[in-house]
Amino acid sequence: MSIELWYWPEIPGRGEFVRLFCEGFGIDYEDMARERGTEALVEHMHSLEGIRPFAPPYIVDEDVVIGQTAHILAYLSDKEGLGSGEPEIDLQLIQLQLDISDFVEEVHSVHHPIASELYYADQMEAAWERAQHFREQRIPKYLIHFDNALAAHGGPFSLGQQPTHVDTSLFQIMEGLDYMFPNYMKGMQGTWANLEGLQGAVPEIEGLVDYLASERRLEFNENGIFRYYEELDEQ
Ligand SMILES: N[C@@H](CCC(=O)N[C@@H](CS)C(=O)NCC(=O)O)C(=O)O
Question: pLDDT band at 45, cuts 50/70/90?
Answer without folding.
Answer: very high
